[in-house]
Known about the structure:
By secondary structure, the chain is an alpha+beta fold. It is 17% helix and 47% strand. It is built from seven helices and 25 strands. The strands form four sheets. It has a 16-stranded antiparallel beta sheet with strand order 10-11-12-13-14-15-16-17-18-19-20-21-22-23-24-25, with no helix packed on it. A three-stranded mixed beta sheet has the order 1-3-2, with helices on one face. Helix 2 (40-49) packs across helix 3 (63-82). The longest helix has 26 residues, at 2-27.
Amino acid sequence: MADREVALTRRIWLVLVLFWAVATALNAATLRVRIEGIDSDLQTQVRAYLAISREIDSSDLQAARLQRLHNQAPEQIKTALQAFGFYRAEVHGELVHNDEGWEATYQVSPGAAIRIKNLHVSVQGEGEQDPAFITLLANFPLAEGQVLEHARYESARDILLRLANQRGYLDATLTQHEVKVDLPDYSVSINLALETGQRYHFGEVFFTKTHMDEQLLKRYVKFKTGDFYSPIEILKLQTALGDSGYFQRVEVRPNKENPTDNQIPIEVDLQSRLPRQWRFGLGYATDTGPRTTVNHTRLMGDEGDKLSADLLVSQNLRRISTVYSIPLQDPVTEQLSYGWRYSNEITRSYENHITGVNASYSSLWRDWRRTVSLLLDREVYIVAGQPEATKQMLYPLVSLDRVRADDRLQPRHGSRVHLEWRGANEGLFSDTNFSQFRAGLKWIDALGPEGRVLLRGDFGTTNVAYLDRLPASQRFFAGGDNSVRGYSYQELGPVNAAGVVEGGKHLMVGSIELEHNLSTHWSAASFYDVGNAVNELSDKLARGAGFGFRWKSPVGPVRLDFAWALSKPQDRFRLHIIIGPDL
């Protein structure tokens, strides 16, 4: 009996708790804040300053507190509008409570914006005759007649100080920085005066003792003793040494406290890495399936030479390679390397085994990475079910690459260009004659505040007398994650008499993709791809289209695409998963 009473009591309490929860939810008050009379951009700024707006998500709306915040709102709105030059704003507010909850409405008449009547900006000291300051003053962001916007004034003020620091005037100060608002005259006077002081120069660079040769380290320094001091050059040195792979920690410290004859000594504190490094990686793409990568790098002596070995194993591709690299006169941009590699790739169209050696010279030309290589390959391959064939080729390869982006992981604006030429001759240790050119482009731009447009193109052409004398790796195929989506990897191209894809002489692929943010870390995309590998430029192109989702992970986007092969309507959609940066 007692057990039944306990069970009944528990049920009663459960019903009461549920009733209380439902009643609380039904009676929960809501708050809506409306601001009228100003545009949406100003509304956004005003809401961020308005205390009553921060109560919208509150679960405990109290009438007395809301009334107090409502009474404060008109002055808060006027103060917020002053930052944009509206000093004569009028605000009328109303707070009402009805069956739907609380509603606060503010009717704003901003009035005319106040303008700059007098502007005086001057530079004194050594920087007075500096061409950079003369140019800045001639094109100053503030001007008489402009509306006073506090953010623009603060930005202009900071530009003066930032330029002084960039030009080596480390003692620069603003002796005047005032904004005078004359309400009766409804005008503004601004006075800015910068005293630059003396301009400093670079002194000697001191490196801590490490296992690396100091002559190599000095080649990373792009400035000379006596050059004008620049924090940008300090950052470049820090970045170059950090990216070299030789050091675990890099700290470049200008000794500003102890200058000698206006020269600032530079101290570089370095902590060496272990001479041997291992890296392991896991990845996935629909084209290759799961993949594992292993890298081993070993320093060879104190002059910067490195020996690296790489292993990649995936469902369709296995590759092992070794590279011996030598830094040249400019260790940041110039490198000579020698390598050996073996790869085995299996696709729906071909299988090949390549063994090869190569020598390469790489350097920067303006903002292009240029690479000149000489390769000797022996390739054993089967294409389109034909008998196994073997080709040997000695050929040069010349490539140009350029990547520009405002953010390498999540670019809003950026582009990638790849240009490449290669060719072989039967008279020079090769079993075939051919010449091939390839160009790839990807372009990204913002599409409104929450969107992006991505354009991609890939074009290739081959001059060869007989396609069947060209090894599989030098033929063009299309289809896959980064080609025409909706089709499997390398499944598109000219077919032989048996209807099996055998690759083509030319490649044409284009893509347009529209992306829109759904939240901070997620976005949705729709795309249309067109292209094919062909033997004649007039041949028919395949089409694919679909939609997908993007997750902005810390290491770059993860792309999930659902694509339909429009040229093969009998096929269902194909799923494409890609992990990695856009450019």
